[in-house]
Amino acid sequence: MPLFRLRHADRRAGALALSLSLAALPGAALAQDIVLKQPVACTLGESCYIQHYVDHDPGPEVRDFGCGAASYQGHDGTDFALPTLAAMAAGVDVLAAAPGRVRAIRDGEADGAFAAGADVATKECGNGVVIDHGGGWQTQYCHLKQGSVAVRPGTKIGAGTRLGQVGMSGKAEFPHLHLALRHDGVDVDPFQPDPGAACDPAPRRTLWQDPPAYVGGGLLQAALTDAPPGFAAVKAGLSAQDALPATAAALVLWAYGYDSRKGDVVRLTITGPGGFAFAHDEMLEKPQALFFRYAGKRAPAGGFAPGRYEATVTQSRDGAEISRKEAFVTLAAP
């Protein structure tokens, strides 16, 4: 394995101007541009999501290309995240975003080391791959699962070639792929490659073959249970139940989401047999990369009526609904 330093995603992004013409049609790439495919074998919004974008703010504030704050100070890439550790354990492939030649790799770094308190200085990227695409373009893939790197330096590969699997190595607190794009050594945001352009959720030009829709946060999972679960269990991959015993002491609705903003409102509602109804609204007091909320009702005297209970969780921002999840559970008859 070559000895080299794979950079991590906390360097200042896009401070230097990249000389790219603005004379393109909306959404079109220029002839000299690289064209990228999705680098993770998952369905965005279902089995994976984008946790962080490139930080475009030149100062101490944070701003992603869509005018939101789904980033952090100096973040220089795009984080394609998995919702749970169970999804990582099951295995999700990382794919080459464009054809090129493998320049360097690293493997053997433990998953979860940083989250457990280990020092990962000089190895923030963890297990990773760097691909040279010619014309000054490079992509870098960080935080791959230990032992999963499937390519070797010098190998010529096509777009979609399996590079490894999504992991949590290096400076990572959740399972994700950090994809960084550079042109002549300058960081480039594939969603908004023109540094001088104003923020826009639908920029006139991107470097994606099929541009993913901008999503500045949302709900990942909702479920009904008979007691509040722990957040660690939810992040690990707690499965939703479809049935509860007649003796259930409570009916609890929980919700798990990402990239909340201060002022977002999470509404949890449950309806069921015999006119059962429950609703709870909570305004989120601070932004969180991952958030977890729950609310519910204790069983009345004699227990809950048997039958199907249905639940809905919505997340609203500035008065508009941005995400919704539904769940149900059946309570058995006594």
TrEMBL record:
Gene Ontology MF, one: metalloendopeptidase activity
Gene3D superfamilies: Glucose Permease (Domain IIA) (2.70.70.10)
Keyword Signal among UniProt keywords: yes
InterPro entries: Cell_wall_metabolism_enzyme, Dup_hybrid_motif, M23ase_b-sheet_dom
First and last residue of the signal peptide: 1-31
Pfam families: Peptidase_M23 (PF01551)
Keywords from the named record: Signal
Boundaries of every M23ase beta-sheet core domain copy: 75-190
UniProt protein name: M23 family metallopeptidase
